[in-house]
């Protein structure tokens, strides 16, 4: 143990910069012989140790942030997780998530690992995560990260940062298209469709739904040759209810989402979307 004298001002300075507790800051400075930068590294290492010790904890709370660039051609959505709702609702935690999202948006990283390696306020995102773990004492991590590039990308955050959506559309952004994109994003948040349309539903999902339908039909006593035809009808209904464009538009049930988009601008449609929800 070092015998160097550590002043209260030095402890407070370290506490202000790192957010760690007074006793933790004093110990870090003592262990680092008063070297301020080494003390910060010590606290980061402590954060890593805390994270490791809490690796078995469930981090099912948190916030989802969705953002697009200035011309709405690129967007990101990410989930920063925490263990408790109390932390997730903390303004500092939400601001921290916003800062990480800004890094993701500005650097256009493509993976969580790349995001954690990106620079953020004199350190990396990963190091800042460890500092937050040390400060708050909960398991905190970026659990999901997605991005979309399109002619128009519209972000939407629903229900107190609980759900984030990105919608990519095939026409350049203007006021009307962004407003339509937000309407569609709200639909996606509420209805959680599987895909844009039937052509984008994974083949294994189609096969599973068809097999279930045929089994139900045969169990009802229908002939096997009829089962295929009836199953096709059931699949059509499944696609209408569970894919985006054929769904009834929640703001006007007389239209499908696809019809609504065409009413906004001729040929307007959704080319891609992504939805992230806390705990999902």
At a glance:
It contains eleven helices and ten strands. The chain has helices at 8-18, 22-31, 36-53, 85-88, 91-107, 112-117, 125-136, 175-191, 203-219, 224-242, 257-264; strands at 61-68, 74-82, 119-120, 123-124, 141-149, 152-158, 163-169, 248-249, 252-256, 270-277.
What does this entry look like structurally?
This protein is an alpha+beta fold. The chain folds into 3 domains: 46 residues, Helicase, Ruva Protein, domain 3 (Orthogonal Bundle); 158 residues, Tetrahydropterin Synthase, Chain A, CATH 3.30.479; 41 residues, Orthogonal Bundle (GTP Cyclohydrolase I, Chain A, domain 1). It has 11 helices and 10 strands. The strands form 4 sheets. A 3-stranded antiparallel β-sheet has the order 1-2-5. A hairpin with a 2-residue loop joins strand 3 and strand 4. Helix 1 packs across helix 2 and helix 9 packs across helix 10. It is elongated. The chain starts with 7 loop residues before the first helix and ends with a strand.
Instruction: Count helical runs.
Output: 11
Give, in order, the helices and strands: HHHEEHHHEEHEEEHHHEEHE
Largest sheet: 3 strands, antiparallel
Helix content: 40-55%
Number of beta-strand segments: 10
- The radius of gyration computed from the alpha-carbon positions, rounded to a whole number of angstroms, is 25 Å
Q: Estimate what percentage of residues fall within beta strands.
A: 15-25%
Report the principal-axis shape: elongated
Oligomer: single chain
What is the CA-CA span between the terminal residues?
A: 46 Å
Total domain count: 3
The top-level CATH class of the largest domain is Alpha Beta
């Amino acid at each position: 143990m070092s015998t160097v004298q550590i002043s209260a001002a030095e402890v407070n300075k370290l506490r202000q910069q790192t957010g760690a507790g007074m006793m933790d800051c004093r110990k870090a400075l003592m262990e680092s012989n008063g070297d301020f930068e080494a003390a910060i590294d010590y606290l980061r290492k402590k954060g890593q140790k805390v994270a490791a010790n809490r690796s078995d904890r469930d981090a099912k709370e948190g916030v989802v942030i969705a953002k697009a660039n200035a011309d709405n051609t690129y967007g990101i959505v990410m989930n920063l997780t925490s263990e408790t709702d109390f932390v997730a609702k903390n303004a500092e935690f939400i601001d921290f998530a916003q800062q990480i999202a800004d890094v993701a948006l500005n650097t256009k990283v493509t993976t969580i690992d790349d995001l954690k390696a990106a620079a953020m306020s004199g350190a990396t995102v990963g190091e800042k995560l460890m500092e937050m773990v040390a400060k708050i004492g909960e398991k905190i991590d970026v659990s999901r990260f997605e991005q979309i590039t399109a002619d128009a990308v519209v972000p939407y955050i629903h229900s107190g940062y609980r759900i984030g959506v990105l919608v990519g559309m095939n026409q350049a952004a203007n006021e009307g298209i962004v407003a339509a994109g937000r309407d569609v994003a709200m639909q996606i948040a509420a209805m959680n469709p599987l895909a844009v349309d039937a052509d984008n539903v994974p083949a294994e999902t189609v096969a599973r739904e068809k097999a279930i339908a045929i089994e139900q039909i045969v169990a009802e006593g229908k002939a096997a040759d009829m089962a295929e035809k009836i199953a096709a009808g059931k699949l059509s209904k499944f696609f209408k209810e569970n894919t985006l464009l054929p769904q009834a538009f929640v703001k006007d049930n007389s239209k499908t989402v696809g019809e609504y988009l065409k009413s906004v601008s001729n040929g307007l449609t959704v080319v891609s979307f992504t939805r992230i929800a806390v705990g999902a």
